[in-house]
Design goal:
Blueprint: E1 2-5, E2 11-14, E3 20-24, E4 29-34, E5 40-45, E6 57-64, E7 70-76, E8 88-96, E9 103-110, E10 114-119, E11 125-129, E12 148-152, E13 160-165, E14 169-174, E15 179-185, E16 192-197, E17 204-209, E18 213-218, E19 224-229, E20 236-242, E21 251-256, E22 261-265
Parallel strand pairs: 1-3
Antiparallel strand pairs: 2-3, 4-5, 5-6, 6-7, 8-9, 9-10, 10-11, 12-13, 13-14, 14-15, 16-17, 17-18, 18-19, 20-21, 21-22
Amino acid sequence: MAAYAYGPWIRARKSSSNALEIQLNPLEAFQVAMTTDATQVAAGGDVYAGAPRPGVACVASLFSVPSTERLQSFEIEPASRLENYRFTMCMRFVGTDETGSRSGVLVCGGNDGSIVRADLETRNWDRFVLNARGAGKTAPTTASGLPIRALAQVNREADVVFCASEDECVHVVDWRMREQASLLGTAGSGPLFATAIAEDNTMLVFAAGADGRVRAYDRRTGECVYTRGGDASKTIWALESMGGLYVDSHRILCGGDDGYIEVLKT
């Protein structure tokens, strides 16, 4: 599916390759996310350009697939705890319903260090702000100001969110306890743009970014136990966990600006 964002309307069409294209209302869609049952897709970007009505901030919009009907928008009054939230930089569906098929919560990472967690059924939302110093804190009045570039989560821990930020750290947030459980990072690594968790070994957290290295951290100790790469001219923008029935061992897919996709065994 190709998703692109410009123009004042929402339009769907089938291209010559029989792929479904969705034209969205927001001027920029920095990232899209799809529910586990592949029936809904969320998109987010500039929260003011993406709002369907003036005077509100649209953190994300939810569309049905393949009809492309706009199901709902998570609209928030700008003055209500999100004064500095301007861009949705990343998003991820977490949790499932009682059938185990549909994701129940959408988590969005903002440019100001805020995590916004929205319930798809009740449309209620809450906010947590990352603390760059690493101390657990419940939503201080001002955000850290450090953009959240990537989110990761594993199925068995629906309340734990891993956030890669530009402060060289992966913040591990326990939403149920409303605290920042731990902080993983290496001084001098530069901004982190990607993070992933190996489903077969949830003790390892992978992170990568501006210095071209992929690092694995032990969640229990916070220590870096693995480093791969190190091309200073390469920036890694994406990590994705891959494993399960069709592969013999778990792998991490790594995408950077050197034109290659690398496959790492965990």
